[in-house]
Design brief:
One of its GO terms (molecular function) is RNA-directed DNA polymerase activity. The chain has 285 residues and is of the alpha+beta class. 45% of the residues lie in helices and 10% in strands.
């Protein structure tokens, strides 16, 4: 086989380079509370501070009685269900299907393993991953190590790159286990008709185009019947980052999600940590 090798064939070199290379971009001096930040170390810490502040609760006044009611219900539920609850397990076939659909170019996890490397795993490695995830399901637990996000920054197009709010922060976590949980959540929502039909975001086989079509039809019907159509559009800033965790668990209890799934999501949301990475420099947080 070596005698048949073509010394001018660089396909292997291109493959290795495509797997190993890291795309970088220049971040200009960033504007912070104390002025401009120039070094990569200062920049990643500034991004980390900005991200940490976005995770704080909203300052608006709340209904304290309702908050107490929600927190009490969540505490009582978790205390009453402190023992492990049976969960339907996954299979190597399901794990392989999830890995197959992971995008190759996504940032690697904290362990440095890229998605394209996962796709080359032998069957015995897939079996071991399945055993780990099934153990997590049986324990009703989301591993702490998978809750540490290694975050990379991507500039928003057309925005001033001197300000941290004009960057998207992208993390890669325990994506395989997350996708297993997402399938179970979606299945419960669909089977119990929890999500209304006019909700198109984050649902399978729907998109913003479907929502635009629905609104357009509503406007056309109004025009044909000589009635006025009024639209109210609300954009909630930091909706995901500032989500009320106890409120989400409360909703899952109200909508009768399986106990094992509620406990895993509660574990998933607690004690999360992160580091911001830029030019091989990590933030101190």
């Amino acid at each position: 086989m070596l005698s048949e090798a073509n010394p001018d064939d660089d396909s292997l070199y291109k493959l290795v380079k495509s797997v190993s290379k890291n795309k970088t971009f220049h971040i200009p001096p960033l504007v912070g509370p104390m002025g401009l930040h120039y070094s990569p170390e200062d920049k990643v810490d500034l991004f980390a501070d900005s991200l940490e502040s976005s995770f704080q609760e909203n300052p608006e006044p709340y209904d304290d009685d309702f908050i107490d009611h929600v927190e009490d219900k969540v505490d009582r539920f978790l205390h009453r269900n402190s023992r492990r609850h049976t969960a339907p397990l996954t299979s190597p076939q399901e794990i392989m299907e999830i890995i197959l659909h992971l995008p190759n170019q996504k940032a690697p996890r904290k362990d440095g393993i890229k998605n394209i490397a996962l796709k080359a795993l032998p069957l015995n490695a897939i079996t071991n991953i399945t055993k780990i995830i099934n153990s997590c399901l049986q324990l009703n637990y989301f591993p702490q190590e998978w809750k540490h996000a290694l975050i990379t920054v991507i500039p928003k197009p057309g925005k001033d790159k001197r300000f941290t709010e004009n960057y998207r922060l992208i993390s890669s976590l325990g994506k395989i286990f997350e996708k297993i949980l997402l399938k179970k959540i979606n299945s419960h929502c669909e089977e119990n008709h929890i999500i209304p039909d006019f909700q198109h975001g984050f649902r399978q086989q729907t998109s913003t185009q479907h929502q635009l079509l629905r609104v357009t039809n509503h406007i056309i019907n109004g025009y044909n019947s000589k009635t006025i159509t009024v639209g109210l559009f609300l954009d909630v800033k930091k909706a995901f980052d500032r989500m009320w965790h106890d409120g989400l668990i409360y909703k899952m209890i109200i909508f009768n999600f399986p106990t094992y799934l509620i406990k895993i999501i509660h574990s998933y949301l607690n004690n999360r940590t992160f580091n911001v990475k830029y030019n091989n420099v990590h933030s101190s947080q």
